[in-house]
Design a protein that fits this description.
- The protein contains 6 helices and 13 strands.
- It is α+β, with helices and mostly antiparallel strands and 274 residues long.
- It has a single domain (35-230), classed as Nucleoside Triphosphate Pyrophosphohydrolase, CATH 3.90.79.10.
- Strands 1, 2, 3, 4, 8, 9, 11, 12 and 13 form a 9-stranded mixed sheet that branches. Strands 5-10 form a two-stranded antiparallel sheet. Strands 6-7 form a two-stranded antiparallel ribbon.
- The longest helix has 19 residues, at 105-123.
- The chain starts with a helix and ends in a 7-residue tail after the last strand.
Length: 274
């Protein structure tokens, strides 16, 4: 993949800020990033591709008021949810590259599930397929339904529409870890999917995102976006222009901080056999 101009601008911006105000030593422990996933839905009908974004509530602690893709953190229930169709092997293998902690196929699959669940939770959109012979794996506790996790409840609501999640059309696009010093830190995997994979649009919305909008990539750059979102949009634009969204051999851009420097590395499937 080519150089990402948004990434270079962000590196320069952070380096200038660091030079102007060197970070003071803090006694606050560095937060460990939590697994998270987000989904970029691409509507390719029309003269230019459009993507779905929503504005985060102003009272949220993490990225208040910013326009983002639907997404959130991995939940244990995401790892065991039944799928109508599973994630492609190439995408599952790429998710395992440089996975921190205890890498596992279940965790990789769970990240794709998280992207699908959060898209339903925040935008009411179902990426699924009919699976009458695949019963829901998650049910509320029989003795105390109040103990049901929020993710399990969302999956029950998803399944109530008659669909099971469809992971097959998801493409793993990029990965980014929130820098130290933020109130929340996530190790986020960015997935993308064509809007043609939408099975149903519902009025379900947990209120975290408002003002859901479909915009072209050019229009979206005028919104109040987190810096990393601008970087990811440039990666997406390149994949779209080169028509490589379905090419499993394309490496994954990986953004993270090391020794105070914002870095971009490429994750290649070949790295697993090295």
């Amino acid at each position: 993949m080519s150089e990402n101009e948004s990434f270079k601008a962000l590196v320069a911006e952070r380096a200038a800020a660091k030079a102007a105000k060197p970070a003071a030593k803090s006694s606050t422990p560095v937060l460990r990033p939590r697994d998270a996933a987000t989904l970029i839905i691409i509507d390719s009908d029309g003269p230019a591709p459009r993507i779905l974004l929503g504005k985060r509530r102003d009272d949220l602690k993490f990225m208040p008021g910013k326009y983002v893709f639907p997404g959130g953190r991995l939940d244990a229930d995401d790892k065991i949810m039944t799928a109508a169709r599973e994630l492609r092997q190439s995408e599952a293998e790429k998710l395992l590259l440089d996975m921190k902690g205890h890498p596992s196929p279940a965790r990789a699959r769970g990240l794709a599930m998280t992207a699908v669940r959060e898209t339903f939770e925040e935008a009411g959109i179902i990426i699924g397929a009919t699976a009458a012979d695949a019963p829901a794996e998650i049910a509320p506790p029989s003795e105390n339904p109040s103990l049901e996790s929020p993710a399990a409840k969302t999956w029950r609501q998803f399944r109530a529409y008659g669909f099971a999640p469809n992971l097959a059309p998801l493409t793993f696009l990029a990965r980014a870890i929130t820098p130290p010093g933020r109130p929340r830190r996530f190790d986020t995997r960015f997935f993308c999917v064509e809007a043609s994979a939408i099975t149903k649009s519902t009025d379900h919305n947990d209120g975290e995102l408002s003002g859901l909008v479909w915009m072209t990539l050019t229009e979206s750059r005028e919104l109040d976006l987190p810096p990393i979102t601008r970087v990811i949009l440039e990666d997406l634009a390149e994949r779209i222009s080169k028509r490589t969204l379905d090419d499993p051999s394309v490496p994954i851009p990986y953004y993270f901080n090391r020794h105070g420097t914002f870095r971009r590395e490429m994750l290649h499937l070949a790295a697993r056999s090295a």
